[in-house]
Amino acid sequence: MTHDTSPSQPDVALHPTGRDVESAVERVELLEAQVQALGQAIRALIQGLEDIPDQEPDPERPARAARLAHDLLLAQGL
Fold it and tell me: Which of 24, 58, 65 is nearest to 44 (CA)?
């Protein structure tokens, strides 16, 4: 039994071209949009949980913030 010691060609090109590059760009753009949506949702949650010193506490504020965060994530398909 002999083993082939010649280097084999990788299944994935090291430098994608054509449609592979377009696909990679589309995936990166999607990821960027998703990260931005996550950031907005986190910001909404933080703002909903913050105490504002010159205002009376609003017991509904955290719930509104959670709904807003949820809506932001749903709008992005997350």
Answer: 65
CA distance 36 to 73: 10
Over residues 24-70, the pLDDT tens digits come to 889 999 999 999 999 999 999 999 988 888 888 888 999 999 999 99
Looking at residue 40, its amino acid is Q
DSSP string of 13-69, one letter each residue: -SS--THHHHHHHHHHHHHHHHHHHHHHHHHHHHHHH---TTS---TTHHHHHHHHH
Q: Which two tokens stand for residue 25?
A: 């760009």
Q: Are 49 and 65 in contact (CB under 8 A)?
A: yes
Rg from Cα positions in the chain? 24
Tell me the per-residue pLDDT of 58-67, one tens digit each, with 9 for 90 and over: 889 999 999 9
Instruction: Give residue limits of the domains in the chain.
Output: 34-50+59-78
